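Slide 14.
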Amino acid sequence: MRKKWPFLDYYGVETPRDFAVKCVETLIGKTLQQQLQERNVIFLEFFRTLYSGNLAACFDKSRHGFSGGFGIVLSVYSSSESQSIAFAHELAHTFQYDVQTGKLLCCDSIHGKKDWRGEDFAESFAHLWLSYGRHRHNLEELFMVYEELHPEINEEYVVDFKSLWPA
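Slide 15: predicted structure.
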């Protein structure tokens, strides 16, 4: 019998989809800015990569520790639809971490091998999150604004969310 994914016990749910529903529910009714602030996502980077997306924890090498935020990295080669799905998928992964310390909340592997239920959770979250409210539309607007500022095809650039937040 397959061992239960540790995050399910940690959050008191039965399946990765249940975990996704629980996480999405915590964000309902909040603006995109409020959600990113709550999940401590401080930047979005468009990068020349073949991966559709990645979550980056921001570490301060001089302090040898978490510097207080996450970044979401998206491929400049992907369509805005693919970027939206990848963005939501990577946002989901922030629920697996303490957003203040950057530490994984509980084990994400079994016998040293990646537990793919975390990816199942992130995919479920992405599709649920994008189906609520105006998330898909807001992301596409965000992407279009930065595409206008960076019109060169496949140009790499960073969106600093912290500069958009009130102090």
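Speaker note: Strands lie at 41-47, 53-60, 65-75, 109-110, 113-114, 157-160.
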